[in-house]
Amino acid sequence: MVRSPPRPRFAAAIPLPGNARTDTTTLSAFTSDRVHVHNPIVIETALVELLDSAEAECAEAGRTDLGNRLRRIRNRVLDPDQLVLVVGEPDQGKSELINSLVNAPVCGSGENVSTSVPSLVRHSDEPTAQLVEQETARSPVGGNRSRVPIESLGEELERALVAGHRVGRTEIGVPRALLENGLALMDTPAVGGVTNSLGSVTEEAVAEADALLMVSDATQELTTNELNFLRRATALCPNVALVQPKTDVVPEWRHIVELNRKHLSNAGIAGRIFPVSARIRALATRDKSKDLNTESGFPALLDYLRKEMAGAHEQLTRKLVAHNVTDSIDTITGELREELGNQSPRTATETLLELETAQRRAEDLKRLSGRWQKTLSDGVQELYSDIEYDFRERSWAVLHQANETLDEADPSTNWDEFEAWLRDSLNTAIAETFDWLDRRRERITEQVADELLREQVRTLPSSDAIPVPDPLSRVPAPKAPKNAGYPRRDQMLTGLRGSYGGVLMFGLMTSMAGLPLMNVISISAGLLLGSKSLNEEKDTRLKRRQTEARAAVQRYVEHVVFQVNKEARDAIRNTHQTLHDHCNRITEQAQIRISRSIQETKRMAEQSAVDRDARAREIKKKLEELGTLRKRAGSLTSNRIAAA
């Protein structure tokens, strides 16, 4: 879940039972035949009752997926906040948009900064920040919460994720007039990439949102992925608007906006477009300029949020309920009409043919499951082997270049510069390795999808690009070699030791010729040998420092290789699990459909004419009930709500 537990606004007036259904007698105490919209308590009760009725129909039809979606919408009806989701592809300016709306840097933004978990921004009297863990069977309702300093929220989140905590979202409270009436803005992880579907986290949030702000900058038209995303999102949340930032860097932004308006119209997506500029908004705030603020486009967007979002919360909620209830009922109705059409008597030949076809499909599906599992398993095993070899080869190249440098240079004189070069080289190698890993992930995804294409609709799972890790922050820096200094006193002693032997040896040799022990020849030889000893000692010390430096670099690189391999294997394991779960879910759904088809065929073959007529009457009656329920859902967008 991405939201805190629902808080009913009318619980004190109308106690709701603990089960999934709302007591119809409670509603009748407030209504006769119709409920007028000016009573919010009765309206919310009617919406909850309508959702419960539709959810019961979904459960009866065996459509738990539709029922789960309606249950999330029910939580939205009971929540007094108005959740506005801010979504978009990477580097479109989602976080910067929220910062500009509330005039505060509440969300991390900038180059190489991405939203890893949803961030909920709501009103509070004092600036606050919390990390909210994902809800589990043992955790409190809504998940464990930990308050953190708002100025270090990014660092605390990264530390929690590295420590293995399952952080579901961050919650930020700021004292802003825009948020006083219950409006809440949520920054979400980027969507798009190799898939056209929603991410699991974002999809769950969309199902619970009152409205959606799609962010796509004004530098280009809406992409196919973005339009597909909007089609999918509007099936869950019909209240959509498009925000186009960066108008300050695109002179022809008006032309782009008009093209996008046509794209939305052609795609059947109803939503307003707001061209804005966060940079001009910041200048207007700094200079307190109304003209610049108007030019930024934010007043129109703020007015939309205040009036059409927060001010029209009731109408948006009814629209959300009507859309989802109608869609669920239409799905169930279509299945019932298909079953009604199958109630005609069948010959034994037709029944046998259908059974053979269904059984053949089941066998094909079994073979298909084996194929995609083998393709996935082989691809992942090959990737495990290749990724370790790939980075080790890159790290060896860096290590070889480092050794060549240390063979020529003195590590004591340029160690800081050398260490910075080493870190930059390893960072480059890590980025190249994970870029290659991401391309291999896409290729495996395509290969598995091609196997599914043979029997199923080609579909790709929701998966973001593999992020480049930062293992160097967890690896201790290589230590500089010891004994880098060579004091002048030690140099003098070394020179004296070398010169002593020279003076003595040549003095004895020249004394045989009648010269004294200390003469020009012996003293010159002593100076020469002393200088030679000093140079040899310097070379010995240099080679010792170079050896120590090479050993330190070797240990450092090996430690980095270990960390990178761990990160890479975790990323591959996550890719494997994502692909396996996605394909397995599709296969299971196909198996369920085939199993139902076989059971239905057998049931229809065994069913007598009397039974078929009875089932047909039962289906027709159910269709009438669903039709009545659909009319009630359709009346939500008018000024009156039909009672049960």
Automatic annotation (TrEMBL):
Residues 84-233 form the Dynamin N-terminal domain. It holds the Pfam family Dynamin_N. InterPro entries: Dynamin_N, P-loop_NTPase, TRAFAC_Dynamin-like_GTPase. Keywords: Coiled coil. Residues 124-147, 464-489 are annotated as: Disordered. Residues 348-375 form a coiled coil. The keyword ATP-binding does not apply. This is Dynamin family protein. It comes from Actinopolyspora righensis.
